[in-house]
Amino acid sequence: MDWREFESTIARFREDIRRAIQDARSESDLQDIRVRCFGRQRGFLREQFKRMADLPPDLRPRAGQLLNELKEWLEREIADRQRRLQETHLEERLKQERIDWTLPGTPYWRGAVHPIQQVRQAIEDIFLEMGYAVVSGPEIETDYYNFGALNFPPDHPARDMWDTLYIHGEWLLRTHTSPVQIRVMQRYRPPIRVIVPGKVYRHDEPDATHAPVFHQIEGLVVDRGIRFSDLRGTLAYFLQRLFGPACKMRFRPSYFPFTEPSAEVDMSCLLCGGRGCGACKQSGWLEVLGAGMVHPNVLREVRIDPEVYSGFAFGLGIERLAMLMFRIPDIRLFLQGDVRFLEQFRVDTWAFRDDVTS
Amino acid sequence: MKVRIGWLKDYVILHESPESIAHILLHLGLPAEDLTSWGPDYVLDLEVTVNRPDCLSHLGVARELSAWLERPLEPGWRSPEERTDRSIEEAVSVHIEAPDGCLRYVARVVEDVRVGESPAWLKDRLESVGVRPVNNVVDVTNYVMLAYGQPLHAFDLDTVRGGRIVVRWARPGESLQALDENTYPLTPETLVIADAQRPIALAGIIGGLETSVRPGTRRVLIESAWFEPRVVRRERRRLGLQTEASYRFERYTDPEMAPLAADHAAYLIQTLAGGRVPAGRLDVNLRPWSPRSTRLRYERVQQFLDVAIPPTWIEKRLQSLGFRVDRVQDGPTPVWEVAPPSFRADVQEETDLLEEIARHYGYERVPLTLPLTEKKVQPDYPGFHLERAARRVLQGLGLHETVSTSFYPDRPLEVFSVVDPLRVANPLSDQRAFLRRWIAMGLVEAAQWNHQRGVTDVRLWEIGQVFWDEQGLPREACHLGLILSGRDRPTQTWRDSTRPVDFFDLKGLVQTFLQTLGWRPVAFAPSSYPFLHPYQQAEVQVQGQRVGFLGTFHPRWTELYELRTPVYLAELDWDVLRTLPRAVPVFQEWSRLPAIIRDVSLIVPESTPYAALEQALAEAQVPELARWDLIDRYVGPQVPTGFLSYTIRLTFHPQAPRSSEEVDKRIQRLLADLSDRIGARLRTE
Ligand SMILES: [Zn+2]
Prior knowledge:
Bound molecules: zinc ion
Largest sheet of chain A: 7 strands, mixed
Order of helices and strands of chain A: HHHHHEEHEEHEEHEEEHEHHH
Helix content of chain B: 25-40%
Largest interface: A-B, 91 and 93 residues
Strand content of chain A: 15-25%
Oligomer: heterodimer
Shape of chain A: rod-shaped
Strand order of the largest sheet of chain A: 1-5-6-10-9-8-7
Structural class of chain B: alpha+beta
Radius of gyration of chain A: 43 Å
């Protein structure tokens, strides 16, 4: 065998295989080609390496080089083709996997925390940050805790401010969360800094703004040197944290048997910003809190010396705040358990806390 | 309390606009609910707190304004022109036989009056503040009350038998036909004004019809008294009869006002209805009022309000409000003895004076400060954070939180077989007199409410107090209730259909909830709650302790409540649950090798509960077995009658059995064991 024949065999093979690779349509076509080229038994390269022995010795290195170049070329061409084939296949597969992404997504149940609880938590968090503890008390109370210890004289018209539901004897359904003030002061000595969320009961005919069952949050601070100005500052801070820095506060005198001085606290109307609207009866103000300095008689009742200690207390109705925040028109909606109402509060209002505090 | 601005001007000079007067009063603690015009004048409807009965009069409101505006107060008291030839003692006598109910009784008499219509100015004043004119005598009594705060009553003296006024407790069997023409039965706790024979008025509440002043009345007896507030309050509550007079008496009237008001009324009657006034007034005063003074320390004012108010300002302002102020210690921080006036029973100690000062100085002028903060000193209530976590978990599980009333009718008591209910003595309606024993009572009502409105997907939870009676004592505890009804997913989709929720959805929910909060092990035990389906219910146990129930609401009641789908209820005793220890996750290393998983189908007698199989698997003590899951349950032609098939997926710890053969060996051993224990055998296809 001479060099020319060797060379032309390789060239022919190269031409054949180039076509074969171009025509390969699948991985198995490529596999056949690999066998043809690199097969251990009858692979072209193997055979040509064997045939090299028939060449004159001086030509063998050239032949070896030629075959190695061929091998590299084959490997490259096959790998290229394989990559292209793979890509084509992937493309075809992807085409088949085309979806109509405009079809609706899978629905999940989304739960809602009751708006009363959402507002309660928002308020709790503000006071928790200030170092208040959240405490609780029973809903069935005695006359003593609900009235007597809170400086309500027996048979006094002040009791009409809180129309009471009685169980029997001295037992009644608490008309406010204030009895917990007494329970806390009996249990702990000053300094005291607590808030008390809870359900309360009144003998009130239900209408759009009155409910016999509703929720309050009470606050109580007792320490040496607590001033009226501390009450004002605390509530101003609280309202701004809850409603934003634009929220203005107004203190005006009022009366509660268990505080003296007592105050009614208004905030600038959320809806009109103080210009006057239907919600605020054109006054620009909304009544949101009752507050005052703890009456010395209340401190004496729990053997805290009012000459040494003083304190403040405040209370607010959660429903009323929730009605303002979410523009709920009727207080009766809160207790109906209507899914169409509840599901409106699936939006997590925590997401809005950043906006308020920034 | 309606206050006419033009009327206030009788007592204090006012040139401010009605709006600014309303504004001043608001900051003094007398907010106006309403400001309306009355001709050229204006009327304020003031909200007067119960501690300030002195402001239930034009003079009282004017006093606040005069102090604030620093202008003089002119009460304008007048006295009648008296006869010299006849004294009041000749006309009437007054006897207080009930000193517990009446401390002072002042009487004035006007004779030869001509009862008729009041002049236009008087009628207009009364009408502008919402009082209907009657006749010139009655109108004067009302006018004086609205002007000065002292309720008066006028009797036709000719109908007062024996010319005697006796203040006494009613006698058994007595009754009185009052001005409102109702006849009221009286009790020995009723304080009455009587004549020589019979009651003629309910003290401090309403007068009698027979002795009232009417056209033709010639002789008028004016009553101006001080009644014990509690006595008036008790009686008007018993009778359900609130009047302008009782409203003031039960809040406390000024005992020193009684003679002044009687004189002024006699003067006005004389002026408007003619008549002659016998000399003098009767004034039975059992305990003359004397001022009680209180110490006021300037230091305290400064410290408490955090403002520096000039001491002279304090003195002047308190004086203009009627207080007597004596400086007992001079210097930069003076001390005073302050005696409140007779109309300010609400001021009893230093703190009340602090309020007066703050009120008139202006609450809004007190600075904003924060208490010197300390670290948190009290703990949050037990379970506070857990409760919050429970809310997050349940919300994540797709339930809505609901809040229900605590009051229920009898029917739920029957449905829930409550044997120890707690009843409200004075319920808002007899329909809802009982306190809830189970949260589920409200959840079922919520389901009813929603089903009736076409919403059957009801997935709710509530956490709150339930109540019961324990040997006569009211008790309460916190429970957590869950309810499921409707479909297993929010809506049918283009890919998946829905199925109704069932007992196992609820069971899985309860289990997931408990485990997510860290409670384990969670187990279930047989139960027999009468309000649940007898064969679809279980007791929930955590760490072997009973914590609640779950089950299908009894179909009998489902029908009664007109529920459109079955309803599944669970209720957990939160107060018990929250005290049970919860596991903090401890990191567990996992194997790099894949777990070995085998599915085996077992045939067991149909009566075998799955729990028996589980127990057998647990007791078989194959330590290499990491877990098992029930992946199929089959009853049908593929298994013999009377049997059912469970397919269990067994997961082995990867390290333990080293080969497939070893795993097979373990399974053989397990099967042999299960066969011994519960008669299970391998199902062959
Ligand atoms: Zn507004």
